[in-house]
Amino acid sequence: MIKINTVLGTISPEALGLTLVHEHMAVGFPGWECDPLSRPYDRKQIAQLCLKSLEPLKAYGVQSIIDATPPDLDRDVDLLKEISEKLQINIICSTGRYTEDMGKWAYLRQRSKSRIGRMDQELYEGFMQEITKGIGLSAVKPGAIKVATGLNGISPVEEALLRAAARAGKETGLPIITHTEAGTMGPEQAALLIKEGADPKRIMIGHMCGNPSLSYQMSVLSQGVHIAFDRFGLELFLPDRVRIAMLVGLLGVGYTDRIMMSQDFMGCVLGRGGRLPEEAGQKVANWSFSHIFGHILPALKQAGIRDEQIRTMMIDNPRRLFSGE
Ligand SMILES: [Zn+2]
């Protein structure tokens, strides 16, 4: 029987319920910890900040959230545990890595350069350690493997990451969820993961709503994987209207059972803080943990999408991503 690892223990796929498949509680982009003006890391305060923005989700019936923060963006399982306990929502955390550009690669790169270890092997061993033994000294095990590639290309480092993830996913049954940069490399990610033995049904190619080309969408979907429209509200990159138009089109031609929805929201960004310039700020004014429920689902319904299709995207598809059914 398949069990899903949450930060508070295992649950059955049926217990997932309404699920947001790609969000972040706290994220620290490498370097924040070297900024003398960064706010000190205060777990209690960050948990409170996150809880405040998560609270509306209870009324919408959200039961589970995948936190897609990889270890190199300062994943903190104790924070996730505290939030999950207080909120009474399942949180599934991720093992994995971020892009070569934005993640923490110096350590592994140095080891492979000095031929102490091979990067794909050491990544794989790290994922297996967390999945089978737990993260650090906590008993928490990740429920998903997060991988990421940069703009318009998959670097050798990222290729090693994808290969290691496919191998660990194949051996453990954990789903692989991805970050794509600005709507590029989705088809290539899917092809590489599948070639390395990952089960297409347990792959979710992320940030697909960042590319408005239907042929791009089709070239990923034709490989049998799931895709995520998981950046609603991030209108800095693309207007929600475009994402909705594309989603309605794909649902209309029969892809309801392959698409999931989320917002890629960040409850707290570590560092010194600050505001976006006004014009950019306006383009993320609606971005939140509950934006889908407040604004996107009503727009989908107005476009003729049925409740049953929304349930499939938000309940059935996340369950099948984990169960592989
Ligand atoms: Zn993300």
Report on the structure:
The chain is of the alpha/beta class and 325 residues long. The chain has 12 helices and 12 strands. It has a 6-stranded parallel sheet with strand order 6-7-8-9-10-11. The radius of gyration is 18 Å and the shape is globular. It binds zinc ion (ZN). Residues 22, 24, 68, 179, 264 line the site of zinc ion.
SSE class: alpha/beta
Helix content: 40-55%
How much β-strand is present in the residues? 5-15%
N/C terminus separation: 12 Å
The counted number of beta strands is 12
Order of helices and strands: EEEHHEHEEHHEHEHEHEHEEHHH
Backbone CA Rg: 18 Å
Bound molecules: zinc ion
Which descriptor suits the 3D outline?
Answer: globular
| Order of strands in the sheet with most strands | 6-7-8-9-10-11
Average pLDDT confidence is 97
Low-pLDDT windows of residues = none
- Distinct helical segment count: 12
Report the biggest beta sheet as strand number plus sense, adding barrel if it closes.
6 strands, parallel
